Amino acid sequence: NLHMTVAFIGEYENPDAVLCAMERVPVPYVTLELTKLGHFGQLYWAGTRENPKLEEYALALRNEFRKDGIPFDPHPFLAHITVARRVIAPKAAAVTVPRGHMEFRHVCLMVSERGEDGNVFYREIGRVTRK
Q1: Which residues pair with residue 103 across a beta bridge?
Q2: CA distance readout (Å), 41 to 38, 62, 85, 92
């Protein structure tokens, strides 16, 4: 379930249109470096070192969505990987982010679903791979 959201689309009935727009934006060669752990209330995330290529990609992808009338959350892109949700602790957890790099190879269109246990999981419904 670990992923980085480049653009949050929400409820949209035409995944083929989304994939078409995604295919028009070349996936860049990007190496991600985890730098810190942060949290928004009960959601913990791992942040990445600033990466202009990734930010340019997110902007280009959102521009394609805009051209095609595909709605997306307009909040600015902030590169992070959600690592835990609904964390209940008396104070912020003292967790360190392991050093390492990850290669950004493809972009997936995901749908979030709820399992029988009520937990959210993500299922891939399309992918664009770097050429």
Answers
A1: 31
A2: 10, 27, 9, 9
User: Greatest CA span in the chain, whole angstroms?
Assistant: 47
Cα separation of 65 and 40, whole Å?
A: 27
Q: Which residues pair with 110 in a beta bridge?
A: 124
Rounded to 5 degrees, φ, ψ at 19 are: -65, -35
| pTM for this model (two decimals) | 0.85
Structure tokens that stand for 102 in this block: 């990850």
The pLDDT tens digits of the residues spanning 54-103 come to 999 999 999 999 999 999 999 999 898 888 777 776 665 566 777 778 88
d(C-alpha 7, C-alpha 17), whole Å: 14
